[in-house]
Amino acid sequence: MPRAVCLLSGGLDSATALALARERGFDCYALSFNYGQRHRIELEAAARLARQLGAVRHQVLDLNLRAFGGSALTDEIAVPKRAAGEPLPDGIPVTYVPARNAIFLACALGWAEVLEAADIFLGVNAVDYSGYPDCRPEFIRAFEQMANLATRAGVEGRWRLTIHTPLIRLPKAAIIREAVRLGVDLSLTHSCYDPGEGGEACGRCDSCQLRRRGFAEAGLADPIEYAVG
Length: 229
Prior knowledge:
Elements: E1 3-7, H1 12-23, E2 27-34, H2 41-52, E3 57-62, H3 100-115, E4 119-121, H4 137-150, H5 152-155, E5 162-164, H6 172-182, H7 206-218
Parallel strand pairs: 1-2, 1-4, 2-3, 4-5
């Protein structure tokens, strides 16, 4: 079967993208990053999901983005918390990690070329997202064009790399329904930016709010534990 590199964060979007790649007939090579984020809980979730979803291999790459900081996820900046139902603010939030998807995709591109995999799957979303500029379709198109100019395989015409973003225009509720259809065990996923010591989701960060709203709109119960009801 053809090979695909699938970026896997441990969240429900990346898990669903991995499951879709598998459904489309790819041998999936999952790639996660230990990039200096606030916790390792998401990496533990990614490992569980890679096993559950049948990844051929799960690679965790160490990248110390905490050396740069500049984000509530990689620096001593508080993660914003909101009451249930409180609208998310406009603009790019402090949880944006500078150039994170560009860095992650560059690493995925390197591994894809070694694997002779012409496909990368990424679970970015431009509908229910938190204002991140590197989740937009125009960024993905631009990176894909660059990737085909920047690799030996692309220059020699041995492949044309495709970056698949199958969830990019779906609302969170639709992504959750798709995950259920694909058999993703959503109890294994983790979305919270600032979990408790026991791994429970805070329930109040932007990512928790988006997740909880998505499950409510999908008419499904969220199987993970929250510190705040």
